[in-house]
Amino acid sequence: MTKHAWHDVSYGADAPGNVTGIIEIPKNTRAKYELDKESGMLILDRVIYSSMYYPTNYGFIPQTYCDDNDPLDILVLSQIEIVPMCLVECKVIGVMQMLDGGEMDDKIIAVAANDMSVAHFNDIEELPEFWKKEMRNFFQDYKKLENKEVSVDEFQGREKALEIVNQSIEDYKKKFGTK
Question: Residues that bind Mg(2+) 2, according to the entry (predicted)?
Answer without folding.
Answer: 73
